[in-house]
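Incident log, support desk, overnight shift.

02:14 A customer reports that sequence design results differ from what the structure should imply. Their input is reproduced verbatim below. On-call engineer (initials T.W.) acknowledged and began investigating.
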């Protein structure tokens, strides 16, 4: 291992067929687009998936009980459909026909079945789960977990797959502060994973790269086409990539809130998924969940039975 090597891409150097999947739903898959484009540029076969919050219709595009294939022409809402907007951006801006595999909100068992179907359908040898934010690293006893249900059901499902490469990559340090996440405790998690060998390093998405230029264009494109519910996470990350700092506002959804945009927000932090899951205190309880309600209930019950850590401030 050499300092000059990017450890995430070094880890995936022998992977040929990769799925980049949004772990936390909504616009999370957008946070993986710079990685998707960089891996495609290396000549790899790369696909996209996302845990979806959209109302998915069964118009012959259903793959499993809990998964669908979304294209630029898929029927659905004209006000909120991040997966279709993403497919249309590829078609209109890059002249590429790109499907986005969308998972319904469900428990770990049906989600595992859906991921296994894609592993076989696409002959995958790697999955990179992407989290827009960093709350996916919360193990369960922190002062705040953010929005753990979506991230953890995805991570629980993927961790059970028999694949050579399973990675979690987070983009958006600082975004989760309004969901009660203590970022000192995120850094504590990174330190723990460094000790265990599960941390694959961090690197910035720089604005003068092709991947960043396409990502910034995608965020602007999606914001224009989802005006009532633009992505706070991705507009914040885009602001950081563009070099803004502090309370830089770009959408009415954040009016009344004070943002903290910083260069740390434009960095990917990547980890071996298995190492992250070994550190988690409650994920094993999610294995047999069928519905998304069960997932949230398991996490709520776990939290009610423990004493959470106190808030830790990052020194000024």
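02:41 Re-run completed on a clean worker. Output:
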């Amino acid at each position: 291992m050499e300092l000059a090597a990017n450890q995430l891409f070094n880890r995936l150097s022998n992977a040929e067929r990769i799925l980049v999947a949004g772990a936390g739903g909504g616009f999370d898959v957008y946070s993986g687009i710079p990685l998707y484009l960089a891996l495609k540029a290396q000549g790899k076969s790369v696909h996209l998936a996302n845990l979806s919050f959209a109302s998915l219709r069964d118009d012959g595009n259903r793959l499993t009980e809990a998964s669908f294939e979304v294209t630029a022409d898929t029927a659905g809402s004209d006000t909120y459909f991040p997966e279709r907007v993403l497919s249309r951006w590829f078609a209109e801006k890059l002249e590429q026909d790109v499907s986005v595999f969308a998972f319904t909100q469900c428990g770990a068992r049906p989600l595992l079945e859906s991921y296994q179907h894609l592993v076989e359908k696409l002959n995958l040898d790697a999955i990179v789960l992407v989290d827009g934010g960093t709350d996916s690293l919360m193990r369960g006893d922190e002062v705040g977990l953010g929005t753990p249900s979506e991230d953890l059901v995805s991570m629980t499902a993927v961790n059970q797959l028999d694949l050579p490469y399973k990675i979690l990559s987070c983009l958006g340090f600082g975004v989760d502060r309004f969901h009660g996440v203590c970022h000192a405790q995120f850094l504590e998690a990174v330190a723990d994973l460094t000790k265990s060998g599960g941390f694959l390093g961090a690197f910035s998405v720089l604005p003068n790269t092709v991947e960043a230029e396409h990502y910034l264009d995608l965020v602007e494109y999606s914001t224009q086409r989802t005006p009532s519910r633009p992505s706070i996470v991705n507009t914040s990350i885009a602001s950081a990539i563009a070099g803004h700092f502090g309370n830089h506002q770009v959408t009415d959804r954040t009016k009344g809130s004070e943002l903290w945009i910083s260069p740390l927000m434009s960095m990917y932090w990547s980890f071996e998924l298995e190492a992250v899951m070994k550190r988690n205190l409650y994920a094993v309880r999610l294995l047999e969940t069928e519905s998304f309600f069960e997932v949230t209930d398991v996490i709520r019950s776990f939290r009610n039975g423990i004493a959470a850590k106190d808030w830790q401030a990052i020194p000024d």
